[in-house]
Amino acid sequence: MNKESLYKNIRAQGGRVTKIRRELVRILTNLGCLISQADILIYLKEKNMFPNRSTVYRELRFLSENGIVIKNTIAGVNYYETPHDHHHHLVCLGCNSINKVEMPSHLGYQEKRIAKENKFYIRNHSLEFYGYCFSCQPRFITI
Prior knowledge:
Elements: H1 3-12, H2 19-31, E1 35-36, H3 37-46, H4 53-65, E2 70-74, E3 77-81, E4 88-92, E5 98-101, H5 106-118, E6 128-131, H6 137-140
Parallel strand pairs: 4-6
Antiparallel strand pairs: 1-3, 2-3, 4-5
């Protein structure tokens, strides 16, 4: 999704496109996949913006609760991303690295089936695979 579409969605949810929201959208669209709250604060500081930490958290909550950005909690850390493409993540239990992984559309079919069978409206889902990256495997896996 591009920035203008996200601004339109903010307005559609009754929100205003404030300076901080504009910058959060810019950060999330430019950096792509899974940006932590801590990293967002660092990027804001680099732009000479110093909003109160609670303001940033409140704005991220507004954006995620209204479906403008996607919030994922992985290993107890909140990450945010824009809904630009559907993907999942590989999470290394050794070094905590997170990598994006594409999956075939079969999962989309399963989501529709599950929703229909359970009469459940699915707004979003997340799927993470936990294990060890190539670099960490020698330290944690013995064969």
